[in-house]
Specification:
It catalyses: N(1)-methylguanosine(37) in tRNA(Phe) + pyruvate + S-adenosyl-L-methionine = 4-demethylwyosine(37) in tRNA(Phe) + 5'-deoxyadenosine + L-methionine + CO2 + H2O. By secondary structure, the chain is of the alpha/beta class. Helix content is 39%, strand content 14%. The N and C termini lie far apart (117 Å).
Length: 732
C-alpha cells in the first residue's frame, strides 16, 4: 500500500530527527553565534575607518559622500548636528554684524545656518522646539544702558528670566538644547559689564540647556580687551566655536568633569574650560539642583529683595532638597515640633511664605499692608482716608452708593494666578495656581482683618481735617472689597468667609481674574461679583495678564459662562491700556455676550511707577476722553446696555444693562439693607430661597449720572486740589 509506505518513511525521519536533536541544537546555536560575531566585527571596522575617510580632504569619494551638512557620510544613520541658529540682540549693530560673520563661517562647513533677531522670535514656542531639533543655538547679545538688554532683546530676556524661576515651565524645559553664548560689553562700565550675556547663559543653564563651550565676552574697552578689541575677541571665540562645532558634527562628546555651580563650570586638572563645559551630565545637574534653588538667580542679583516667590516652587524645593538643607531651614525659620520623617509641606510653606510676606509688608509697594495669619492681608484704601476728611469717595461710591470711609479692603489669598503687566503691586506678591500652604480658618481671617482695619482707622484720631463723626462711623465696617491683591477665590473657605461677612451686616464686592470657573460656580451669593476682563483675544490676554495656566483661554471663557449663571449682581471690569487693548472694541462686545454681566466698568489703567516687572509708562494711560470714546463705541455695539455713570477722578465709566433703567431712571445703586434681608432668607432656607439683582437696587442720584456737571463727584463732599500738583500727561 502506497499510503502506508509514505507514512512509514515520514515516521522514520521524525524518529531520526528526535534521536539526533542535540546535534541539531548545537549546529543552530553555533550558526547564530557566528552571525553575531561577524556583525559585531563589521560594525567595529566601519566605526574605525569612516572618520578617517571623512577627515581626508584629498579623498574625492569622501567628499562626494558627504551629506548637506558636510559632517557625516550617508552610512551613518544619525545626524549629530542638523544646523546652527544664531540669535542676536543688538543696539548699535555690532552683534548683528558678528552674527552675519559667524553665519558665513558656519556655511563654509556645509551646515544649514539661520540668523535670527531676538525681537522677531517667540522664545516660548521656538526654544522648546530646539530641544529635539539637533541644532546648535548661538546667542550673541549686547549689554546696553544700566545693564539692560537692547530693545530688540528685551522681551526675549524677560521671558527667559521668568521661565528660569517659574514653576509652570519646569527645570528641564530646555533639556536637550545645545547652546553657546557670546556677550558684548564695555568693561569701562564695571558694574554692568556683560551683565546680559552672563544672565542669559545662567538662565539657559537653569532650564537644563547644555553648553557646548564656555561663555565668552567681548570687550569694547581696548585697554582691557583680552585680544585688543571686541572684534579680535570675537574672532578668537569664533575660531574656538568652529573647532568645537566640527567635533560635535563627528558625534564626539567630552563630558564635563568639573564642578558646575551657579551656572559656571569650573574644570579640574589640566582640562580646559572649553572641554570641561561641553556636556553636563544628568546626575551632576540633579546633585546641584537643590543648591541652585536656594541661590539667587544670578551673581549680579545677589542683593535683590523684590523677587517673586512662586508657590509651586516651594514644593519643588521640598521635593529636591537634601537633609542638610532641611536642618538648615529648620534653624532659620524655627519650625517647631515637626519630625523630618513626617515633615508637613503646608506648615513649611506657611513659615517660608510668612517670612517672605513680612519682608514685603516693609517695602514701599506694600506700605500700609497688614498681614493676617499666613496668607491674607488688609490695607486702608486711600479713598477711605479721603472720605474721612470729606474729600470725596471712590468710584464705587458714585456707581453703587457705598460709603468709602466704611469700606474694608482685604484679601484671603495674597497669591495670584496671573502676572498682569499693570499689576499695581509689581508682582511682589506670590503667584500660584492652587492652594499649597497651611490654611487659616475664616473666623480668624475676618476677626484679624476687622481688628487691624479698625486699628488703622483709629490712627486718624486727631489728624487735621478728619471728621469726628465719620471716624466713628468708619469703625463699624459696612462694606468689604475682596480685591486688595491676589486671587481671593483661591481661598478654599471663601464661601464661609462670605457668610461671616454677611452675618456681620457687611456687603461683599469680590473680584476674580477669570481663571477659576468651577470656583465661580460654587460661590454663594455675593453682593456684587466682578470678573477682570483685561483683554478680548487669546494673544492679547497672554501678553497683558501673563497667566500661569497653560489652558488660560479656556478657563477664561468658562469663567465668563459661569458668571452668566449667577442671579446676583455681576460686573465685567475692563482695564484699558493704550497701545495694548484699546482697539479691541468689537471683540469685547463678543465676550460680553457670553457672560451677560449686569454692569461693565470701563477704566483707564493706573500707572504705578517704573518697575522691572512691566514696561508700562504714563504713555500707556488713556486720557479720560479716550475712555469715554471707548465706552460710547462699546455701548453702540451693545443695544441692551447704556452708559449710566461716570467717575472722572478715577478715569472710569459704568455701562449698565437696560433692565436697571426703570421708568427712565437708572437704578445702579444698591439697597444694602434689602440685600442683607435677602441673603439671610437665602441662608435660613438652606439655599432654596433665591433672589436676583433686581430685588436690591436703588435709584442713582443725578450727580452720579454720565453727563452730569459733577462728573461723578459727590457735591456733599469738598473737592481738594493739591498745591503744585504735577501735570499728568495722561490727562486723568
Amino acid at each position: 500500500d502506497v499510503s502506508m509506505d509514505t507514512w512509514s518513511y515520514f515516521h522514520t525521519c521524525l524518529v531520526s530527527i528526535w534521536l539526533h536533536r542535540f546535534y541539531i541544537y548545537s549546529a543552530v546555536a553555533f550558526g547564530i553565534s557566528l552571525w553575531i560575531v561577524i556583525q559585531f566585527t563589521t560594525r567595529t571596522k566601519r566605526k574605525v575607518t569612516e572618520p578617517k575617510s571623512h577627515g581626508n580632504p584629498s579623498s574625492s569619494e569622501g567628499t562626494a559622500e558627504k551629506l548637506g551638512n558636510g559632517c557625516a557620510p550617508p552610512q551613518a544613520q544619525e545626524v549629530h548636528v542638523a544646523g546652527v541658529k544664531i540669535f542676536y540682540g543688538s543696539q548699535t549693530g555690532t552683534a548683528k554684524r558678528f552674527a552675519k560673520a559667524l553665519a558665513e563661517a558656519v556655511t563654509s562647513l556645509h551646515l544649514p545656518v539661520e540668523v535670527i533677531n531676538m525681537g522677531d522670535y517667540d522664545p516660548e514656542d521656538g526654544l522648546s522646539e530646539e530641544t529635539s531639533s539637533r541644532n546648535i543655538c548661538v546667542f550673541l547679545v549686547a549689554t546696553y544702558t544700566d545693564g539692560q538688554p537692547p530693545e530688540s532683546a528685551a522681551w526675549f530676556c524677560k521671558w527667559l528670566e521668568e521661565a528660569a524661576s517659574d514653576f509652570r515651565v519646569g527645570k528641564s524645559f530646555l533639556q536637550g538644547l545645545r547652546y553657546a553664548v557670546f556677550g558684548l560689553g564695555n568693561s569701562a562700565y564695571a558694574d554692568h559689564y556683560n551683565t546680559v550675556g552672563r544672565r542669559m547663559d545662567r538662565w539657559l543653564w537653569m532650564l537644563s540647556g547644555s553648553r557646548i563651550m564656555t561663555r565668552a565676552e567681548g570687550d569694547c574697552n581696548v585697554a582691557q580687551s583680552k585680544h585688543g578689541s571686541i572684534e579680535a575677541d570675537f574672532e578668537a571665540w569664533k575660531g574656538k566655536f568652529l573647532t568645537r562645532l566640527q567635533v560635535l558634527c563627528r558625534g564626539e562628546k567630552k563630558p564635563c568633569s568639573g564642578k558646575c555651580k551657579k551656572g559656571k563650570c569650573k574644570s579640574s586638572g589640566k582640562q580646559s574650560k572649553e572641554s570641561s563645559d561641553n556636556e553636563h551630565g544628568t546626575s551632576e545637574h540633579e546633585s546641584t539642583e537643590a543648591e541652585e534653588l536656594f541661590e539667587t538667580s544670578s551673581e549680579e542679583e545677589a542683593g535683590g529683595t523684590d523677587s517673586v516667590i512662586d508657590v509651586e516652587d516651594l514644593g519643588n524645593i521640598m521635593g529636591h532638597m537634601k537633609k542638610a538643607k532641611v536642618l538648615l531651614l529648620e534653624g532659620i525659620w524655627n519650625v517647631h515640633g515637626v519630625s523630618h520623617s513626617g515633615y508637613h509641606l503646608a506648615y513649611f510653606v506657611c513659615q517660608f511664605l510668612q517670612a517672605k510676606l513680612n519682608c514685603l509688608m516693609n517695602c514701599a509697594l506694600f506700605s500700609g499692608y497688614k498681614l493676617i495669619g499666613s496668607h491674607s492681608g488688609v490695607k486702608l484704601c486711600r479713598w477711605t482716608k479721603s472720605m474721612l476728611r470729606g474729600r470725596g469717595g471712590c468710584y464705587k461710591h458714585t456707581f453703587y452708593g457705598i460709603e468709602s470711609h466704611r469700606c474694608m479692603e482685604a484679601t484671603p489669598s495674597l497669591a495670584c494666578a496671573n502676572k498682569c503687566v499693570f499689576c499695581w503691586r509689581h508682582h511682589t506678591n506670590p503667584v500660584g495656581t492652587e492652594w499649597r500652604w497651611k490654611m487659616d480658618p475664616p473666623e480668624l481671617v475676618l476677626q484679624e482683618a476687622m481688628e487691624k482695619h479698625q486699628n488703622m482707622i483709629r490712627q486718624f484720631k486727631g489728624v487735621a481735617g478728619v471728621k469726628a463723626a465719620r471716624l466713628e462711623e468708619a469703625l463699624a465696617v459696612k462694606h468689604c472689597a475682596l480685591s486688595l491683591v491676589g486671587e481671593p477665590i483661591m481661598y478654599p473657605h471663601i464661601n464661609s468667609l462670605l457668610r461671616l461677612l454677611h452675618q456681620h451686616g457687611i456687603s461683599t464686592f469680590l473680584v476674580t481674574n477669570a481663571q477659576f470657573p468651577e470656583e465661580i460656580r460654587r460661590l454663594e451669593p455675593v453682593t456684587q461679583l466682578y470678573v477682570s476682563v483685561d483683554a478680548s483675544t487669546k494673544e492679547s490676554l497672554r501678553r497683558i495678564d501673563r497667566p500661569l495656566f497653560k489652558d488660560f483661554w479656556q478657563r477664561f471663557l468658562d469663567s465668563l459662562k459661569a458668571l452668566a449663571e449667577k442671579q446676583q449682581r455681576t460686573v465685567y471690569r475692563l482695564t484699558l491700556v493704550k497701545a495694548w487693548n484699546v482697539d479691541e472694541v468689537k471683540a469685547y462686545a463678543d465676550l460680553i455676550s457670553i457672560g451677560k454681566p449686569d454692569f461693565i466698568e470701563v477704566k483707564g489703567v493706573t500707572y504705578c511707577g517704573e518697575s522691572s516687572a512691566s514696561s508700562l509708562s504714563m504713555a500707556n494711560v488713556p486720557w479720560h476722553g479716550e475712555v469715554q470714546s471707548f465706552a460710547q463705541e462699546l455701548a453702540r455695539l451693545l443695544p441692551d446696555y447704556g452708559i449710566a455713570c461716570e467717575h472722572q477722578h478715577s478715569n472710569c465709566l459704568l455701562l449698565a444693562h437696560c433692565k436697571f433703567q426703570v421708568d427712565g431712571e437708572w437704578r445702579t445703586w444698591i439697597d444694602y439693607g434689602r440685600f442683607q434681608e435677602l441673603v439671610r432668607e437665602h441662608e435660613q432656607s438652606g439655599g432654596s430661597r433665591t433672589f436676583t439683582a433686581a430685588e436690591y437696587t436703588a435709584r442713582t442720584p443725578a450727580w452720579a449720572l454720565f453727563g452730569a456737571k459733577e462728573q461723578g463727584f459727590d457735591p456733599q463732599e469738598l473737592r481738594f486740589h493739591r498745591k503744585s500738583k504735577a501735570q499728568h500727561i495722561s490727562g486723568c
